Amino acid sequence: MSGRTGRTTPPALPGVHVPTSLSEALQILRREPNLPIWAGATWWMDKGLSASSLLSLQALPELKRVVRSDLRVDIGAAVPVARLREAGHRYLPELLMTTLDRQGPPPVRNMATLGGAISLPEGILPVSLVLQLLDARVELRRAGSSRWSAINAMHRIPGEILTRIRIPLKHRTHWMLHQFGNAYPLTSPSMTVAATARVDKNGLAGLHCGLLIRGTHLIRLREAEAELVGRQLPLTERDQRILLSALREQASYIREMDDLGRWRAISTLKQFLRRLG
Ligand SMILES: Cc1cc2nc3c(=O)[nH]c(=O)nc-3n(C[C@H](O)[C@H](O)[C@H](O)COP(=O)(O)OP(=O)(O)OC[C@H]3O[C@@H](n4cnc5c(N)ncnc54)[C@H](O)[C@@H]3O)c2cc1C
User: Fold this and answer.
1) pLDDT for 54-72, tens place per residue?
2) pLDDT tens profile 104-116
3) Which are the contacts of 71, defined by CB distance < 8 A and separation ≥ 6?
4) 121 close to ligand 1 (CB < 6 Angstrom)
5) Is 42 in the pocket of ligand 1 (CB under 6 A)?
6) 174-275 maps to which CATH number?
7) Which of 122, 156, 215, 271 has the most CB within a 10 Å radius?
8) Running DSSP on this structure, what letter comes out for residue 48?
9) How many whole angstroms from 232 Cα to the centroid of ligand 1?
10) Domain boundaries in the chain?
């Protein structure tokens, strides 16, 4: 005879580690450095998780905090994108908020974390480009040690967890974000052009711009940006050419983009430079 008792027990999941403190998580990874890390799990679910063992970051309070001072904000790597957007709407740079709003449909944004978004093993999302333009840095920890790294130089070694993303809260007067095509899946034909700048009474006080092509090729124009800082506004055609020529010389611009993509990249950047003053 079979029947229901009215109570169910969750299935035992022996391989799923759900630590409740960061030090516990780091100890687990010390023993099993290659354990897959599960944050919001949106990417994992999309790919289909085949591992029988994983480390969940869901119950780690240290990774769910957003701590802000006048100079910067430290975002726990497991803070969901939608929660970050809600908590940070008064102080996060608008460029970042707009990027977060475009990080997939609401169910994905409710689960996806900032740490997960910049840790995808197979490519780069627009939010990574934007965080680089905002001079963000990341903290990586493993049992007994921690280090800070620029996002473009972040090479996570087995046993490490990305724990915090630190964004300096600098004043910026201008920004833009143009997304051509879908940023996800990462293999889609897509391009993101983003920029941020600070203008003061003396002219151009800061400029950061970059492009992301098909989720794989990221272009920064640091030398040209530095050359333009301090120039009077509006920028002359010659000034603008410094940045645009630097872009035209990039290997990814030459090899990875078609004529339409190149035209879009140049005209979008030109438009931004003209808006500065
Ligand atoms: C249907 C769908 C639509 C989407 N649309 C968009 C879109 O329009 N635009 C866009 O930008 N993105 C889009 N995405 C991608 C989405 O932004 C990413 O899946 C998400 O940001 C990954 O975050 P997560 O917390 O879910 O990561 P998870 O899936 O948990 O993990 C992703 C990877 O990061 C690693 N990882 C996660 N956290 C850490 C950590 N703290 N330390 C070390 N490693 C870590 C994991 O091990 C894994 O390799 C979409 C995704 C889906 C499923």
Assistant:
1) 999 999 999 999 999 999 9
2) 999 999 999 999 9
3) 168, 169
4) yes
5) yes
6) 3.30.390.50
7) 215
8) -
9) 41
10) 14-170, 174-275
